[in-house]
User: Which sequence fits this backbone?
């Protein structure tokens, strides 16, 4: 019998509470390798922090942080700063820097930037070329890769999360990382060369089954974004995508591809346990079961129907809380959003009768 892989669906945004930490971790690991390669080549790097003077942006206006974010993106403040800094130092920094947007209290942005090449930059030169406020520089260390990549684990200095207005934009309108063209090229070329050397030492039988590390990615980022736009709609906001993803499960069937089913992951796993037996194993975050695509779709329909029946019974017991017509609108989301109201799955947790007869 074939295997099926299931996991919680993600909308693949840094603002997604599930996907954000994973994306940040991937960027951090890749940036560590990029800086290690720079160290092997004898290059130094510096860490820059670029802030904005708030006075020109009417700090009393509650929409001022959003206007500043839009202006910084539209006028390419970071790109033009790097061009002016390169002219001042008599060099070019193409392919040498990566910058990350971070938000302070109230949603005011600033940048953390790693610049490969110089080991020291005069502070006065930075102030003159930046021109928007204060800036700071420090010698590069390995910890800077972690600091720049912690977008989802460290949202703001006030620990308030990302500004609410970011969630009302489409993913393509929110860009928290900016890199100079060609920044990752030396790392890609180095890893391809190392894989070629390793494959040259393999036997013919081993080489036929071996896949280089850099070829293991199933999709390019552009292909992944195109699939996500097709699933959610290109104009849907990040908030809508997060809410939709929390109600869905991603399913992968070897040889048949991937698809999305609208069902809570916990309920789907419980139903698959009843239909197909206990899960076999975990594989890089995927839960693996014996079965096929039809088993998963059937389990999702059964779990959703069982949940609606249970919700209708609970509403009938508590008519003051809601009407029976609301049963179909219940969602079983164990990840609470901005409210403290328990979800229907939180209420159902520990209810043995919820899953009675699901395999009938």
Assistant:
């Amino acid at each position: 019998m074939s295997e099926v892989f299931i996991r919680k669906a993600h909308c693949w945004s840094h603002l997604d509470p599930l996907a954000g930490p994973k994306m940040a971790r991937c960027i951090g690991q890749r940036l560590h390798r990029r800086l290690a390669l720079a160290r092997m080549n004898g290059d130094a790097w510096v860490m820059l922090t670029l802030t904005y003077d708030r006075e020109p942006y009417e700090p009393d206006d509650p929409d001022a942080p959003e206007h500043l974010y839009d202006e910084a993106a539209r006028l390419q403040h970071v790109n033009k700063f790097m061009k002016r800094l390169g002219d001042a130092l008599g060099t070019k920094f193409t392919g040498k820097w990566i910058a990350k947007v971070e938000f302070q209290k109230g949603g005011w942005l600033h940048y953390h930037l790693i610049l490969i090449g110089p080991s020291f930059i005069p502070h006065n030169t930075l102030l003159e070329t930046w021109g928007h406020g204060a800036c700071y520089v420090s010698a590069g260390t390995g910890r800077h890769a972690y600091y720049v990549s912690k977008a989802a684990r460290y949202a703001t200095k006030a620990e308030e999360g990302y500004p609410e207005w970011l969630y009302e934009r489409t993913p393509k309108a929110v860009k928290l990382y900016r890199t100079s063209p060609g920044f990752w090229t030396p790392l890609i070329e180095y890893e391809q060369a190392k894989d070629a050397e390793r494959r040259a030492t393999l036997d013919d039988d081993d080489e036929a089954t071996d896949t280089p590390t850099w070829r293991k990615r199933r999709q390019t980022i552009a292909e992944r974004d195109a699939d996500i736009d097709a699933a959610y709609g290109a104009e849907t906001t990040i908030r809508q995508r997060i809410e939709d993803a929390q109600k869905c499960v991603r399913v992968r069937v070897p040889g048949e591809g991937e698809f999305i089913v609208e069902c809570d992951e916990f309920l789907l796993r419980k139903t698959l346990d009843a239909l197909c037996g206990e899960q076999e194993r975990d594989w890089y975050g995927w839960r693996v079961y014996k079965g096929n695509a039809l088993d998963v779709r059937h389990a999702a329909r059964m779990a959703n129907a069982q949940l609606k029946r249970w919700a209708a019974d609970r509403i009938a017991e508590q008519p003051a809380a809601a009407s029976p017509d609301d049963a179909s609108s219940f969602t079983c989301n164990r990840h609470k959003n901005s409210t403290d109201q328990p979800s229907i799955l939180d209420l159902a947790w520990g209810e043995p009768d919820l899953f009675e007869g699901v395999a009938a």
